TrEMBL record:
TM regions (residue ranges): none
PANTHER family membership: DIHYDRO-HEME D1 DEHYDROGENASE, PROTEIN NIRF
Protein name as annotated: Uncharacterized protein
Domain of life: Bacteria
Organism: Polycladospora coralii
Gene3D superfamilies on file: YVTN repeat-like/Quinoprotein amine dehydrogenase (2.130.10.10)
NCBIfam families: beta_rpt_yvtn (TIGR02276)
């Protein structure tokens, strides 16, 4: 009898121990599941962080490239912090007083092209490391540049021989010259790249070039002392600054009919916002910019900037515009929503041309 009781007691203790062990195992399994879930969450967070990092690298930084005409250099501005991050010497111009003037980004944003009028060539800058990598030799005073959307070709106005130079950007040479008007300066491509619009300063005309045949197909007067040109994203209208007449020519590209908008004295640069809702004109003699609403073709605001503003460009998102101030060696930044200057700082000697883009990281 005692033996049975002792056996039953031992069985109960053994069962109790077994239950305790089972509870411990279950607790361990729960802890393992929780740990596994934690590891999985960490892995998910890590993947998301890596994805965000890769996306940030893919998009890259928004940078402004500014031609310092009297400094023989290109300044690079970080548009997020609005700080000068590098100055790139273009070429040794010796005793020449003029450096880079026209500037444009390649469509893939891997290269910047800057025209050097006195040196008669085109500087090539690699955006990955902001390094001058080469030049394309030209003739006869290259001024402004327009790059085709496929990145294979560019047109450069050459004032010295009244023509447009056709540049093969892959092989880095001049393949053709297209006769236009006298002293061509500004140039812009239609959105489909089928036409190039060339502003001829000395005879106050606009040349239209068929880019397939590479010939001038039209030429007509637009206003005294025309300089720069910008086209709306939908290709309906072009805006040309007339330095000698303190106005802007509005060209309706479907029929080439003209209208005019009065702005400040000495209008020079012009740019259209990416969404086509704003046009900004720099007024070199009044130290202002005129903001135009292209829906009504009227100036909606005049903003004071630095001394002798020349170039202007919008950021890709259209929230800011950068204006080069030639005489005080600075750039003014305009908040497009508020239409106010938010910052002005030095960038180099005689800033003039400017282009802005989102630069892909390496």
């Amino acid at each position: 009898m005692d033996r049975c009781q002792n056996g039953r007691k031992a069985c109960r203790e053994s069962l109790r121990e077994c239950r305790g062990n089972l509870h411990e195992v279950r607790s361990d399994r729960k802890a393992c599941r929780e740990k596994l879930q934690e590891v999985r969450s960490d892995r998910k967070a890590c993947r998301e962080s890596l994805r965000a990092c890769r996306e940030s690298q893919r998009r890259g930084d928004i940078l402004a490239y500014i031609c310092n005409f009297l400094g023989n250099s290109v300044a690079v501005i970080d548009c997020k912090t609005d700080t000068l991050i590098k100055t790139i010497s273009t070429l040794n111009h010796g005793n020449r007083i003029s450096g880079p003037e026209g500037i444009a980004l390649s469509p893939d944003r891997t290269s910047v092209y800057a025209t050097n009028a006195d040196q008669a060539n085109l500087s090539i800058i690699r955006t990955m490391d902001q390094t001058l990598t080469g030049t394309i030799e030209m003739l006869n005073t290259p001024r402004k540049i327009a790059v085709f959307s496929d990145g294979k070709k560019a047109y450069v106005t050459t004032a010295g021989n009244n023509s447009v130079a056709v540049i093969d950007l892959i092989n880095q040479n001049v393949t053709n010259t297209i006769p236009v008007g006298m002293a061509p300066f500004g140039i812009a491509l239609s959105p489909d790249n089928g036409k190039a619009y060339v502003v001829n300063e000395d005879d106050s005309t606009l040349s239209i070039v068929d880019t397939m045949t590479e010939t001038q197909v039209d030429n007509f007067p637009i206003g005294p002392g025309p300089l720069c040109i910008a086209i709306l994203p939908d290709g309906t209208k072009a805006y040309v600054t007339n330095e000698s007449n303190a106005n802007v020519s509005v060209i309706h590209l479907s029929n080439n009919q003209l209208s005019f908008i009065s702005v400040g004295a000495g209008p020079f640069g012009v740019a259209v916002s990416p969404n086509g809702e704003r046009v900004i004109v720099t007024n070199g003699n009044t130290n202002t910019v005129s903001v135009i609403d292209p829906q009504i073709d009227q100036v909606i605001k005049t903003i004071t900037v630095g001394l002798n503003p020349f170039g202007v460009a919008f950021t890709p998102d259209g929230t800011k515009a950068y204006v080069t101030n030639y005489r005080d060696n600075s750039i003014s930044i305009i908040d497009i929503q508020k239409l106010t200057v938010t910052n002005t700082f030095a960038v180099g000697n005689g800033p003039i041309g400017v282009t802005i883009g989102q630069i892909a990281s390496s």
